[in-house]
User: Fold this.
Amino acid sequence: MKRIAQGGFELCVCYESGPCGFVIYRYLRKVGIDCVVISPSATPRRANDRIKTDRRDAQMLARLLRTGELVVFWVPDEAHEAIRDVVRARRQAKDDLSAAKTSLKSFLLRHDRRFSGKSIWSRSHWNWLSKLTFAFPHQQFVCKRRLRPIGLAVF
Assistant:
C-alpha cells in the first residue's frame, strides 16, 4: 500500500465490517493510511449479481468507494468497544441462563417432577431443586449438570 501511495495516488482503503472487529482499521490509521469501514447490508448490489468472489467484491467496493456510494460505518474507539464487549457478554450470559433453565425444566418435565409451590426460581423452589433425587445415578448426574449453569451446584 505504501508503494501504491508513493506513485502519487491518494490512497483510501475500505472494508466491510465483520467479526474481526476494527483491528485492521486501527492499524491502517496508525500507519497513516486513510481507511473507512462500511456496512455490508448497506452496500448497493445489482439484482442479478449473485456470484461472490473476493476479487469481484474488492473491485465493486473500490468502484463504489471512488463514486462515494458507500455508507461509512462509525468506528468506535477502544473504550467504546470495551463497553460493547460487556454488553454482548451480559446478553450472552442472559441467553445462556435462559437456555439452562429451559433445559432443566424440560428434563424435570420428562421425569414428571413438578414444583408444587407458587413461583419457580424462588427460595422454596431452589430448596426443592436441591433435594431432588432420582432412581438412577445417571439421571442424578444429568440433573446436577443442568443445575450447574443456573448457579445451584448440589448433590
